[in-house]
Specification:
By secondary structure, this protein is of the alpha+beta class. It contains five helices and ten strands; from the N terminus they run βαβββββαβαβββαα. It has a single domain, classed as Hypothetical Protein Pfu-838710-001, CATH 2.40.320. The protein is about 25% helix and about 45% strand.
């Protein structure tokens, strides 16, 4: 199901993070190493995590809240057929010549993404602490993007009314909503339009 999300970034988000710790119900802590596939489109969010190719697409923006819909979630190895007929159309790109029938995640990164002029593979390390607030999922994450450490706080839900309440309680209105694709592209100066 599509979910609305509001995500903020900063070197130290102690004000927002502190409110989430005080108001939310803490969940699990997760650590992950992920590879984002950055393109000129900030409306497509493809990443590789836990041997899965996971792609979400921005389908709507309502009063600054971004609605993201899952489009593809498949385990590696991934077929060249699926990459050509599903992934590249989502990215709005013509697929390159694909020499293999199946691609592992490493082969996909090194043989498909890295040589492509419109794509970049970006390593992202995350330490995420999840919360529940007003029926919404929320998280505080320490993130390292290409060696640069940042903090991000996000709330998300299918229920926009509940998300508005969580957004207000956390005081997010003074911060810009920026997705992972937008943040990565802006931070690294990738695919500047």
């Amino acid at each position: 199901m599509p979910r609305f999300e509001y995500r903020v970034w900063g070197e130290h988000l102690t004000d927002v993070a502190g409110r989430l710790v005080d108001l939310g119900r803490r969940g699990e802590v997760r650590q992950s190493a992920e590879t984002y596939v950055s393109s000129a489109s900030k409306a497509v969010n493809p990443k590789i995590r836990a041997s899965l190719l996971d792609v979400k697409v921005l389908v709507d923006v309502v009063d600054g809240f971004e609605q993201w819909e899952p489009q593809l979630k498949i385990a590696f190895p991934v077929s060249a057929h699926l990459l050509a007929l599903k992934l590249f159309p989502i990215l709005g790109l013509v697929p390159p010549v694909l020499d293999r029938d199946l691609y592992t995640s490493d082969e996909f990164i090194h043989e498909v993404v890295t040589p492509h002029l419109a794509l970049s593979a970006v390593e992202v390390l995350k330490l995420r602490v999840s919360y529940q607030l007003e029926g919404c999922l929320a998280e505080i994450s320490d993130v390292v993007v290409a060696g640069r450490g940042m903090q991000t706080v996000a709330v998300e839900s299918e229920d926009l009314a509940a998300l508005r309440v969580a957004h207000e309680r956390l005081g997010l209105g003074t911060h810009e909503n920026r997705s992972y694709p937008a943040f990565i592209s802006e931070t690294l100066g990738l695919n500047a339009a």
